[in-house]
Amino acid sequence: MRDLSWSKHEKQIAHTAFKQALAREAAALIAEVRTKAHAIAELDDLWRLEQFLHAKRHALEQRYDYRYSVLLYVFVDLIQAGWLSLDELAGLADDKRARVAALLACARGDGE
Amino acid sequence: MRDLSWSKHEKQIAHTAFKQALAREAAALIAEVRTKAHAIAELDDLWRLEQFLHAKRHALEQRYDYRYSVLLYVFVDLIQAGWLSLDELAGLADDKRARVAALLACARGDGE
Predict the structure, then answer these.
(1) B33 → chain A, closest CA residue
(2) Residues from chain A contacting residue B42 (CB–CB below 8 Å)
(3) Which ipTM score applies to this complex?
(4) How many Cα atoms sit within 13 Å of A80 on the Cβ side?
(5) Cβ <8 Å between A33 and B49
(6) pLDDT by residue (tens digit) across B20-78?
(7) pLDDT at B107
(8) Nearest 5 degrees, angle CA A99-CA A105-CA A108?
(9) pLDDT digits (tens, 9 = 90+) for B65-106
(10) pLDDT tens-digit profile of A74-108?
(11) Helix axis angle, B8-38 relative to B71-81, nearest 10°?
(12) CB pairs under 8 A between A and B
């Protein structure tokens, strides 16, 4: 992906899509943690919550990598995880959207 | 404290007091975590909760040390922290209660 160049307009679209996905995943995670916290009955539940948060923090740090050299892979992952839709990448150049679509098809096992 | 011997009856009293203190601190901590979880508004709040739980787990592991060689110190700490009262150690031999009372007085700066 290092061969791709990003126009200012594309960077704005990419940044908005990235932030949108992060906001959605964050909202879902916060809701999940509230539910878990509400159900806590004993100390072991607290330590399980700590482990859950620890794992989620590492997962989000891995997932939300805003480097243009890897950004299309990040978008593929976010679309697969349900935090972003391909439509939200409208405005990116055709070659970028085609690569994302091809990667998604590969991931689904459609071949290419 | 290694010079002290504990009768079976004293061990029962000590164990009950220890468990009671732990149950109180656990209940307070669970209530605090629920309140914190309810107030979470953004990802950073989640990671602060993770740090809080991490610190509390270590603090509780340190505090609740059920070895008879250190148990009177543990009780002093629990009384100072408000999770136990001296009255709940009724039934322990006079020398043990006197040591706890003396340590508490020292900690309050009453001298001894």
Answers:
(1) A37
(2) 26, 30
(3) 0.87
(4) 17
(5) yes
(6) 999 999 999 999 999 999 999 999 999 999 999 999 999 999 999 999 999 999 999 99
(7) 84
(8) 145
(9) 999 999 999 999 999 999 999 999 999 999 999 999 999 999
(10) 999 999 999 999 999 999 999 999 999 999 999 88
(11) 40
(12) 63
Q: Do A30 and B38 touch (CB under 8 A)?
A: no
Instruction: Give the pLDDT confidence of A34-48 residue by residue, as tens digits.
Output: 999 999 999 999 999
Which DSSP letter does residue A83 get? S
Q: Which residues of B touch A (CB under 8 A)?
A: 26, 29-30, 33-34, 36-38, 40-43, 45-47, 49-50, 53-54, 56-57, 60
CA gap A78, A86 in Å, rounded: 10
Q: How far apart are CA A28 and CA A32, in angstroms?
A: 6
Q: Do B46 and A56 touch (CB under 8 A)?
A: yes
Tell me the mean pLDDT in the region A47-60: 98
**CA terminus-to-terminus distance, chain B:** 18
Q: Is B108 exposed, middle or buried (0-12, 13-18, 19+ CB in 10 A)?
A: exposed
Residues of chain A whose beta carbon is less than 8 angstroms from a beta carbon of chain B are 26, 29-30, 33-34, 36-38, 40-43, 45-47, 49-50, 53-54, 56-57, 60
